[in-house]
Amino acid sequence: MDPVTLRTDRLVLSVPEPADAADVVAYANDPDVIASTPVPVPYGRAEARQWITEVVRTGWATDTRYDFGIRRTDDRRLLGTVGLFGFDHGAAEIGYAVHPDGRGHGFTTEAARAVLDWAFAPGPRGLDLVRVQWRAIATNTASAAVAQRLGIRFEGRLRSGVHHRGRRHDQLLAAVLRDDDRSAPTVWPVA
Fold first, then answer.
1. What's the domain count of the chain?
2. Residue 179: per-residue pLDDT
3. From CA 118, how far away is CA 4, in angstroms rounded?
4. Is the whole model's pTM more than 0.90, yes or no?
């Protein structure tokens, strides 16, 4: 698929470019991103360039993953990314990571909502997906809060379900279906 650009009132979501490498390095080295995502450590310009030129571009070219850079309409700096991957017969997974400068403004929720809208839209305007799932380490409360605001429904907790940075962690699972009402945040069980 040719890369797609999505727009909201405050954001432009477009494919990360090689010129974004320094911004990718900046958010990939954030302690919160390192603690909750499988980003390589250490992470430098070579890793960012490889991710942009090989993973992102190959994903779009082979229809195996679609990553979007999150940018404010009034500032083209890359604040983070949101993407769909793990496609399987009408389903995919959503993931996101954002630099600390982009947190606390609702940008991640706004960007992920636009990606979900595109994912569920019928073709050729969208991917016509039926299900989008979300997974995260149980201690990643910021990611869970975004998922809840998106109307993603809690489906379970896998005890010691993921190995990350040399340790086993509980993993939360949640998903949203195309026909689910996403207009209101969902309530999840207390940990």
1. 1
2. 97
3. 10
4. yes
